[in-house]
């Protein structure tokens, strides 16, 4: 193993680590805020939550910020494994520095497993898809694979049955309606969806917005709302598969782990030819979020995913250059 391929003597990342950091930054994040910073040091990388990129209105506690950082942590770990080194992940390693979301300790050279190779290959192919999916049922065995993928990192994933799905979608519609009438929410959305943001490397670009469901059954977040941009309607799948991610607690460590599990589910879905859309609105309105936790042994809902076979592919959304996210 040539160490300079990973860490240069001046502490800067070498080419192997640079590729892994690019994979980390390809992670999904709330409104594509990319709220992470990387601090490489001899054989470790700290992934730091960038509090300046928190969404004040949508995410006052920074919960979705930490979930997003957790997704980047997962990608970084998988990429390092796929590049042939062991990667141990410590979540919230310093009790007095909660901004350090995770520390990744690089270990000895190790032949990558086929699972790590497949997940790493899916990283650049995973995109949030807000368009209609095909009217093709996702087989139960495939959904079971997704729940197994997510049942890690102290997170539990369940597939909503028909009754739970109608309840979740109804609550998500309510949440979307609550949010869209809030001028502060709209202003924040506008700030992260600037149309034609030439040269902009964060935020949700217009070609990533999806249409409205003509039957109003699937309440995708309305990204056109921020700038008053009208969005077309379209026929969406009648029978969406809906997954729910729960954790045992609701601390920053739980949020980071939920983000790791979320990304594992999303990459596994990508490997299986599926696409997904988070439907987070219901988790962002506290009164609605607690309704869905009732009866689930005190577990806390962290995210809702719509999953299906994509009818149209999505393009990658922009990312900031790695240099902008490196800290000494
Ligand atoms: C914690 C979290 C919550 C998200 N919530 C939503 C959501 O409610 N609606 C949505 O359409 N996308 C949601 N997304 C997806 C992001 O908007 C998306 O990851 C980002 O714009 C980057 O695009 P990409 O996923 O295609 O790389 C969420 C992502 C994360 C990590």
UniProtKB/TrEMBL annotation:
Matches recorded under InterPro entries: Nitroreductase-like, Nitroreductase/BluB
* Superkingdom per UniProt: Bacteria
- What's a single GO MF annotation on this record? oxidoreductase activity
Q: What is this protein called?
A: Nitroreductase family protein
């Amino acid at each position: 193993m040539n160490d300079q391929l990973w860490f240069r003597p001046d502490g800067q990342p070498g080419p192997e680590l640079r590729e892994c950091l690019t994979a980390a930054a390809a992670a999904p994040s709330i409104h594509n805020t990319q709220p992470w910073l990387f601090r490489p040091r001899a054989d470790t990388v700290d992934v730091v939550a960038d509090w300046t990129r928190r969404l004040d209105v949508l995410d006052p506690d920074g919960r979705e910020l930490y979930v997003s950082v957790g997704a980047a942590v997962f990608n970084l770990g998988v990429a390092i494994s796929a590049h042939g080194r062991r990667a141990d992940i410590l979540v919230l390693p310093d009790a007095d520095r909660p901004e350090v979301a995770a520390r990744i300790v690089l270990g000895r050279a190790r032949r990558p497993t086929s699972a790590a190779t497949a997940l790493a290959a899916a990283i650049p192919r995973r995109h949030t898809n807000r368009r209609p999916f095909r009217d093709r049922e996702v087989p139960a065995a495939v959904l079971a694979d997704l729940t197994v993928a997510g049942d890690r990192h102290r997170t539990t994933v369940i597939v909503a049955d028909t009754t739970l799905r109608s309840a979740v979608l109804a609550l998500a519609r309510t949440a979307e309606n609550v949010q869209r009438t809030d001028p502060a929410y709209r202003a924040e959305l506008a700030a992260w969806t600037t149309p034609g943001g030439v040269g902009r490397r964060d935020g949700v670009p217009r070609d990533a917005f999806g249409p409205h469901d003509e039957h109003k059954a699937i309440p995708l977040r309305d990204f056109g709302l921020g700038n008053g941009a009208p969005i077309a309607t379209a026929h969406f799948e009648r029978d969406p598969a809906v997954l729910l991610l729960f954790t045992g607690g609701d601390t920053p460590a739980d949020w980071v782990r939920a983000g790791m599990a979320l990304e594992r589910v999303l990459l596994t879905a990508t490997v299986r030819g599926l696409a997904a859309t988070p439907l987070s609105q219901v988790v962002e309105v506290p009164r609605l979020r607690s309704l869905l936790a009732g009866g689930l042994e005190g577990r806390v809902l962290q995210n809702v995913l719509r999953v299906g076979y994509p009818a149209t592919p999505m393009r990658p959304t922009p990312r900031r250059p790695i240099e902008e996210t490196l800290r000494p």
